[in-house]
Amino acid sequence: MKIAVEGCAHGELETIYECIEFLQEEQNVKIDLLICCGDFQSVRNNDDLRGMAVPEKYQSICTFYKYYSGEKVAPILTLFIGGNHEASNYLQELPYGGWVAPNIYYLGRAGVVRFGNLRIGGLSGIFKGHDYLQGLWECPPYTQSSLRSVYHIRALDVYRLSQVKTKIDVMLSHDWPRGITNYGDRNELLRRKPFFREDIESNRLGSPPAEKLIHELKPKYWFAAHLHCQFAAVVGHENDEETKFLALDKCLPKRRHLQILDLPSNYNGDMLLKYDSEWLAILKNTNHLLSVKNINCHLPGPGSDERYDFTPTPDEIQAVEKAFESLVISNDSFVKTAQDYNPNKPKCTPTEPILNPQTVYLCEKLGIDDPVQVVMARAGRTMKIFSPDCNDTQTENTPNKCGKLSLPAPVTPSENQSEEISQENSTISLELSYTPENSNYSSNCMTPPSAKKVFKRRNLALYTSEECEQGSDKSSSPASSDSPRSSKLPYKSNEL
Description:
Blueprint: E1 2-6, H1 13-27, E2 33-36, H2 46-49, H3 64-69, E3 78-80, H4 88-91, E4 98-101, E5 104-106, E6 110-115, E7 118-123, H5 146-149, H6 155-161, E8 170-173, H7 186-192, H8 197-201, H9 208-217, E9 221-224, E10 231-236, E11 242-247, E12 258-262, E13 273-275, H10 277-285, H11 314-323, H12 357-366, H13 371-378, E14 383-387, E15 392-396, H14 458-462, H15 466-471
Parallel strand pairs: 1-2, 2-3, 3-5, 7-8, 8-9, 9-11
Antiparallel strand pairs: 1-12, 4-5, 6-7, 6-13, 10-11, 14-15
């Protein structure tokens, strides 16, 4: 089994598929699966651009809309997690995962699925301490604050993943696990990114929840993105177990954003995408812990009078499996919930959440709640359903409420939230590379990014405004002259 792993996609889906096609032809291989580590940007139309936390001048439709509308079909099964630059209004329709387009599957806020005999887990979003313990209170219409907090990792998602006891083979996160730089070539990283030094030395670089999970889950591989540079590490565990970690860059020319993972044939199995029964049972077991309060929420732990170990028993797993006719996640379950892209239609801010049939199906089968529907019900609002016949929405008067939560309507907090991480353009030369130092490809195959590299202090470069962050993404526009469409791509696969 061969898997392509992408760092930050930033909407450049056509370019990524072209890179994979080039690799397959150049190396005479077949890649079975593509997984993306966030900032996927599944933008269907102009309205979705208003649901994405980027300044207006950087709101580009990119190319995902072609795969949503049916103009193109993804040539390879694609799995992705969410980052901090997503069409949040769309991804909120699928809190437990689902198809965002034919052959393109979102893992949800947190999730575990199987592809053949390979077990893949993921954690969407980035860590911000001030939101970590809160409930899932956000829903459209977003304020400037909730547009960002909606993609911040919550303790409940991490708590659920920590209940997984069966081995996970591949784990995905958007930001890096905190402390991961202790397990790789930190000096080389600082040579390329000197503004990381302050946060590395104070142990503030990366996500504490991801650090917790990498030592609890002990996956064979862990992939991440977010900081727009490549970094490799090996984390040792007890009993000689180890996790091979690799962070990848964003999708730009001459950037190391794509990696090929060559796995033994025993992972092949039936090569079908399936629900993971242990994960489904965990969702069912922990549904009562769901909160939509915008305050810190309680999660049970050791010493508590209530159950705190929700690792499912064999009987609980069997009960979940009986609830489904099949665990195969069929492409047929994809349903459009928004209009196709119309370049002449003005951008409108999403105001009402849309009911996604994929989420309804999963909630009914497991007897769990859709957090957005709980928010809507507590606020006395009604859900909308999309009518493909008239390409419009209609009111759905009966929210899908399964549990017995008794929660107040959410209160929108103040808008003084900190801005998200910005990155810099930088070329790198690590051993795990798609542009080897001794590459025979001519230098004019790909034009270097036009943005000038400017080194800044870490806190200024990584925790400044969203607009600064997107400034480095300007060259990733679909219209960029750096597009590989007319030239060979200097990529080469490496086996981890």
